[in-house]
Automatic annotation (TrEMBL):
GO molecular function: metallopeptidase activity
TPR repeat start and end residues: 280-313
Protein family according to the UniProt entry: Belongs to the peptidase M48 family. BepA subfamily.
Role according to the record: Functions as both a chaperone and a metalloprotease. Maintains the integrity of the outer membrane by promoting either the assembly or the elimination of outer membrane proteins, depending on their folding state.
Zinc keyword on record: yes
Record PROSITE patterns: TPR
Protein name: Putative beta-barrel assembly-enhancing protease
Binding positions for Zn(2+) per the UniProt entry: H106, H110, E171
Native species: Vibrio variabilis
Cofactor comment: Binds 1 zinc ion per subunit.
Essential cofactor(s): Zn(2+)
Length: 433
């Protein structure tokens, strides 16, 4: 006999369909107001980890979207409609993929257990105006984005996330479901209390703790509880994830806001005490620094070795495409991406790099064809629309350019604006930055 679904109640106040609508609207405003990381390789990586967890989670009722915000502060949050945001600073503090996954699993549990909706239902019992205030804020945001964003933050994900996270029962429930999800997804469950404990120790006496500890307090009893739960699972030996360390290296090289010399020094120092299994990640990081500082021969030497070792790795392929475009050899980049698509048909990273190389090669009709399929399959990815606009400008298709830019504006909640007739073409590397 099926037991009643107690943990995910809240349908009386807010339906799943309403959550999806509100989540989509809030995501559009976040794109307009926050430094979203539009990096195809990093997006593919966090998406793969996130959906590995979602496939092992209970009570999944919405699709999930994972995205990254460029911010060195440690933080993560979730809101209506299955949206989970990670700060890039998480990668600077999480030592393993399982530590990163433990944060993501916790946020996934906030969504699956409908903590925001349950909080709203609780508020609605005391004040029937709560839902009306949320809807009013969203409508105001359409007409006046800045005022609407402020009002929305006061009633939904921003302040509500903070308030639910201060609710000890919700935090413990998210930890409990999160650990179960980690175990089923074959991550190391002990990395949740290990990561939480290290953060608590590091910032115990800090006058200004990171945002994650303000919205996700780590009292000793919570760390102890997660440690005891983790110890109840059989030990699991998890090998270091090269893709996690490649993503981490990419963030150090391009998203951490440090100078190239400091990044190279970090790669050298960290590599000396790291496992041999992840040494290629530090070489990759150095190659990105060399590429971004126009030391192309040094970048090519490293990337050639990495591709010889792992020719189908998207981190390496993406960097090689950038390299050949920088060397004024876009045809070589396009040919490499075309061959890679035979191995990984319709892959997002390879497709967007292929389209970019085709544009740089002035093969505009081919590029537009690739990008039309890309934007059809991934309508919420602004990278595709930016490149489609760029290709149509070069082709002289003003109507198609305007249509692509309209999609970008809609994704960024720019409902009331005026098109300009001039538009400077953008490169994929600029979009990633």
């Amino acid at each position: 006999m099926d037991l009643p679904d107690i943990g995910t109640a809240a349908g009386a106040t807010l339906t799943i369909d309403q959550e999806l609508i509100y989540g989509d609207a809030y995501m559009r405003m976040i794109r307009a107001s926050s430094p979203i990381v539009n990096d195809p390789v990093l997006n593919e990586y966090i998406d793969s980890v996130g959906h590995r967890l979602v496939s092992s989670a209970n009570d999944v009722k919405t699709p999930f979207t994972f995205f990254m915000i460029r911010d060195r502060n440690i933080n993560a949050f979730a809101f209506f409609g299955g949206y989970v945001a990670l700060h890039s600073g998480l990668f600077l503090h999480a030592h393993t993929e399982s530590e990163l996954a433990s944060v993501m699993a916790h946020e996934i549990a906030h969504v699956t257990q409908r903590h925001l909706a349950r909080r709203m239902e609780d508020e609605a019992r005391r004040s029937p105006a709560t839902v009306a205030a949320l809807v009013g804020s969203l409508l105001l945001a359409i007409a006046a984005p800045q005022a609407g964003m402020a009002a929305l933050t006061a009633t939904t994900a921003g302040s509500m996330q903070a308030s639910i996270n201060y609710t000890r029962s919700n935090e413990k429930e998210a930890d409990r479901f999160g650990i179960a999800t980690l175990a089923r997804a074959q991550f190391d469950v002990n990395d949740m209390p290990r990561f939480f404990g290290r953060l608590a120790d590091e910032y115990r006496y800090a006058s200004k703790p990171p945002p994650m500890l303000l919205t996700h307090p780590l009292p000793e009893d919570r760390i102890t509880d997660t440690r005891e739960r983790a110890q109840a699972y059989p030990p699991l030996r998890v090998q270091p994830s090269i893709n996690y360390h490649l993503a981490r290296a990419r963030i150090v090289a391009r998203q951490a806001g440090i100078k190239s010399d400091a990044a190279l020094d970090w790669f050298e120092r960290t590599a000396r005490k790291a496992s041999p299994k992840i040494q290629n990640s530090f070489e990759y990081g150095k190659a990105l620094v060399y590429l971004d500082t126009n030391k192309l021969d040094k970048a090519e030497e490293i990337l050639t070795k990495l591709l010889d070792y792992d020719p189908n790795n998207n981190f390496y392929l993406d960097a090689a495409s950038d390299l050949y475009i920088a060397k004024k050899q876009p045809e070589k980049a396009a040919e490499m991406m075309k061959s890679a698509l035979l191995v990984k048909p319709n892959n997002a990273v390879i497709s967007i790099n292929y389209a970019n190389a085709l544009i740089e090669s002035d093969k505009l009709d081919e590029a537009i064809k690739v990008l039309q399929r890309y934007t059809h399959d991934r309508p919420n990815d602004t990278n595709g629309w930016h490149l489609l606009s760029d290709a149509n400008i070069k082709k002289g298709n003003s109507a198609e350019d305007l249509a692509a830019r309209a999609e970008i504006m809609a994704l960024n909640a720019q409902w009331i604006s005026r098109f300009r007739c001039t538009h400077k073409p953008v490169s994929l590397r600029n979009l990633e930055a």
